[in-house]
Write a structure and sequence with these properties.
The complex is a heterodimer of chains A (320) and B (98). Chain A contains twelve helices and no strands. Chain B has a single domain, classed as Helix Hairpins (Orthogonal Bundle), CATH 1.10.287. Chain B contains three helices and no strands. In chain B, 85% of the residues lie in helices and 0% in strands. The radius of gyration of chain B is 16 Å and the shape is elongated. Classes of the chains: A mainly alpha (320), B mainly alpha (98). Chains A and B meet through helix 8 of A and helix 3 of B.
Chain lengths: 320, 98
């Protein structure tokens, strides 16, 4: 693809945004800029021909991470909301330029290596794609060729969510701030998000999309509902008639949280009888991948939601 | 023909975004800035969407663009409401001419 003026604007904008958000003394400003950075990065991934990454970046990088960091910011005492010790001035600029030079040199070397290897890994993936059970090369790599990587990733996410659950409560203190206008939006946006998550999950088999993007959308729906229908003092939803909202607040997500890991583990163990780890039997790969992805999407959504609730819940800002 | 019409719509949308950005930078307080911003968000994006739909000339793409417009419109208006409400509760006073 030839570079256009748009690409230069995007690349320059990313670098400038990165510099401003790193050197800002106001954490809130950095936070907002980080979300903008994520959105711009998603556009860059589209321009680079990586729509899978663009979807993941927009949903996880900008969306869920932004919500997480805002929740964390909310819990900071006022004195902690200023970034102290931010280096600025000529030395910061000099070291930044030096680091960028090293990174550019490394990328150049890696690109040179990739060009030497004929066709790179792309050719190998495309050659074996018909055997993978799916038509999307990204899904084939994530769930088949290197399925154990994704398996371990789900394990890491599960561990992180469990750790947060150990420490976090679900006491929001957001009830009074909830708005009926926001509730009106959430009531029809949340089902739409769930529908889109299902669509992305199904689409992952033959086009960009998949469990991670679907999971992030599910988490987004959960976070929205948790903000609109916060649990009351006794831990029950204060005003949410909706079963979905109640489901997200009770934090009774244990089954969902581990579903992805357990299903993946079950498939792996069952296949181990045949000899190799995660080598799908011929003809079954597509169905097994869809089964794993469906469970994984639910788990990823639950895990991201638990991470948010763990950070957003608990004591108000300023409390010891 | 459709292309030229699409270009006109898109240009009008961009002009609205520029005006909205100028308002965001120049208006005296939060409420007037929100007022400038939401106009650009809703009508500006709508015009750009119409322009893009005319450019592609595909009903399916037009439908998707329409959906995007509706979703952005719904979320940006609600967000503007939430920001203004939070500011009012925090005691931010509307600007008054001297």
């Amino acid at each position: 693809m030839t570079a256009s003026a748009l690409d230069f604007v995007l690349a320059g904008g990313l670098v400038a945004l990165g510099a401003v958000l790193l050197f800002s003394h106001d954490l809130f400003r950095s936070l907002v800029l980080f979300v903008v950075y994520g959105l711009l990065m998603a556009v860059v991934w589209v321009r680079l021909g990586a729509p899978d990454l663009a979807l993941a970046e927009a949903a996880v990088g900008a969306g869920v991470t932004g919500a997480l960091m805002l929740a964390a910011w909310h819990r900071l005492p006022a004195a902690g909301r200023r970034a102290e010790g931010v280096v600025s001035g000529p030395w910061a600029l000099l070291s930044g330029v030096a680091l960028a030079g090293v990174a550019a040199a490394l990328i150049g070397v890696l690109a040179g290596l990739d060009a030497q290897r004929e066709g790179g890994l792309q050719q190998q993936v495309l050659a074996r794609l018909p055997e993978s059970g799916v038509e999307s090369p990204v899904t084939a790599v994530l769930l088949n060729f290197r399925g154990y990587d994704t398996f371990l990733e789900l394990g890491v996410l599960l561990l992180a969510a469990l750790l947060v659950r150990l420490g976090g409560g679900a006491d929001f203190g957001l009830g009074a701030k909830s708005s009926s206008v926001l509730r009106g939006l959430a009531d029809w946006l949340a089902p739409l998000l769930v529908l889109t998550a299902g669509y992305l999950l199904w689409r992952g088999g033959h086009a960009p999309g998949g469990a991670f993007q679907a999971g992030a959308l599910l988490a987004g729906a959960g976070i929205l509902l948790a903000l609109v229908y916060p649990p009351g003092a006794d831990g029950r939803p204060a005003g949410g008639p909706r079963a979905f909202a109640r489901w997200t607040q009770g934090l009774r997500l244990r089954g969902l949280l581990s579903a992805g890991f357990l299903v993946f583990l079950g498939v792996a163990l069952a296949l181990l009888v045949g000899g190799n780890l995660l080598q799908y039997p011929a003809g079954w790969a597509g169905a097994l991948i869809l089964l794993i992805e469906a469970a994984a999407a639910l788990s990823i959504g639950a895990a991201l939601l638990v991470l948010f609730m763990g950070v957003a819940g608990g004591r108000e800002a300023g409390a010891p | 023909m459709f292309d030229a019409l699409g270009l006109i719509f898109a240009a009008a949308g961009v002009a609205l975004f520029v005006a909205g950005t100028a308002g965001l930078l120049r208006f005296p307080d939060l409420y007037t800035r929100l007022h400038a911003l939401t106009k650009a968000d809703t009508l500006g994006l709508g015009l750009v969407c119409v322009g893009a739909a005319l450019h592609w000339g595909d009903p399916l793409i037009a439908l998707k663009l329409g959906l995007i417009w509706l979703l952005v419109m719904a979320s940006s208006t609600v967000l503007a409401h939430l920001i203004a409400r939070a500011a009012r509760r925090d005691g931010v006073r509307p600007w008054e001419a001297e």
